């Protein structure tokens, strides 16, 4: 059975290229770079890259601060826009991430990949779409402020993700050390925000008031998810992270149907279909036209054109 030109051959080639690329980055003797080691090596790496390298710590504080701005802008936007408008406009972070990837990492995307990115944007919007519900509570909103906040949040999301990807792939520092460097500054920023907004209640009831076993379990799951997100960013890219997040939204909704009896709507079914099709289209092999162009040039030279 000939598979030289099929998807399987392309995937095998991608795996081989990835291994060669990893070996090229590994350093001496072509040995692959390891993300594991002994506890002693881990402590030495922490002393060298965290305590003994404030410059690297500051470098990773950039995406942490940008993410903090993004989250706050998202809250401001949601407070000043209708939920449906917020839902649609916030998904612009997907094509914004693709644009930042092209500009900051000097990559190229094919037309089909751009189409799949915008298709994913529409699919996620439909999956999360909920009809507007009438409420007796009248909230004064400022649409101009809301759109400004959502624009900042979208730009922050794309920039921070691609910046973190660039830092991860531009050095041999361990992935886990990079996470520690980024989250240390994130913890500091969020602690300041918590004490500024709820400092009195924390002094009265304690910082861990209301932390049940379920809360700790959710925190654990979120932490593991964050680490795996870093792995995805390091070994693929932020665009693929967006696709995996969209697939997670679809799967979580299906789980809600099975566990809580959530009703599937037509918009959800259409959105899930768009998400699946966009993932398939983005993963299709890109056609290499170099050999074709070279052949055309050679033929023109032969006939004296």
Largest sheet: none
Q: First CA to last CA: what distance?
A: 41 Å
Q: Can you tell me the residue ranges where pLDDT is under 50 for at least 5 consecutive residues?
A: 1-34, 288-293
Rg over CA atoms? 23 Å
> Strand-and-helix sequence, N→C?
HHHHHHHHHHHH
Principal-axes shape call: globular
| Average pLDDT number | 78
- How many beta-strand segments? 0
- Please state the structural category: mainly alpha
Tell me the fraction of residues in β-strands, as a range. under 5%
Annotation field: number of helices: 12
Could you estimate the helical fraction of the residues in percent? Answer: over 70%
What is the secondary structure topology, with strand pairs?
Blueprint: H1 7-25, H2 39-51, H3 54-80, H4 83-90, H5 93-105, H6 111-127, H7 143-169, H8 175-205, H9 213-235, H10 238-260, H11 266-282, H12 290-302
Helix pairs in contact: 3-7, 3-8, 5-6, 5-7, 6-10, 6-11, 10-11
Descriptive labels:
12 helices, mainly alpha, 305 residues, disordered N terminus, single chain
């Amino acid at each position: 059975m000939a598979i030289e030109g099929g998807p399987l051959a392309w995937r095998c080639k991608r795996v081989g290229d990835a291994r060669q690329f990893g070996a090229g980055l590994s350093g001496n003797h072509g040995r692959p770079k390891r993300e594991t080691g002994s506890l002693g090596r881990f402590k030495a790496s922490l002393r060298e890259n965290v305590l003994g390298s404030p410059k690297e710590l500051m470098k990773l504080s950039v995406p942490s601060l940008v993410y903090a701005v993004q989250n706050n802008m998202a809250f401001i936007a949601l407070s000043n826009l209708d939920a449906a408008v917020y839902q649609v406009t916030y998904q612009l972070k997907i094509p914004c991430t693709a644009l930042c990837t092209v500009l900051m990492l000097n990559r190229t995307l094919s037309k089909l990949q751009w189409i799949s990115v915008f298709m994913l944007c529409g699919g996620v919007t439909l999956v999360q779409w909920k009809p507007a519900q009438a409420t007796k509570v009248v909230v004064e909103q400022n649409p101009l402020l809301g759109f400004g906040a959502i624009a900042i949040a979208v730009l922050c999301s794309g920039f921070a993700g691609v910046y973190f990807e660039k830092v991860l792939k531009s050095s041999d520092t361990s992935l886990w050390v990079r996470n520690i460097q980024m989250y240390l500054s994130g913890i500091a920023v969020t602690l300041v925000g918590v004490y500024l907004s709820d400092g009195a209640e924390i002094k009265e009831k304690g910082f861990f008031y209301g932390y049940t076993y379920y809360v700790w379990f959710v925190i654990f799951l979120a932490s593991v998810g964050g680490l795996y997100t870093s792995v995805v960013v390091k070994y693929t890219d932020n665009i693929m992270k967006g696709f995996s997040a969209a697939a997670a939204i679809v799967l979580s909704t299906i789980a809600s149907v099975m566990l809580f009896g959530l009703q599937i709507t037509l918009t959800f079914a259409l959105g899930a279909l768009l998400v699946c099709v966009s993932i398939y289209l983005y993963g299709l092999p890109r056609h290499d036209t170099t050999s074709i162009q070279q052949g055309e040039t050679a033929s023109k030279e032969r006939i004296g054109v």
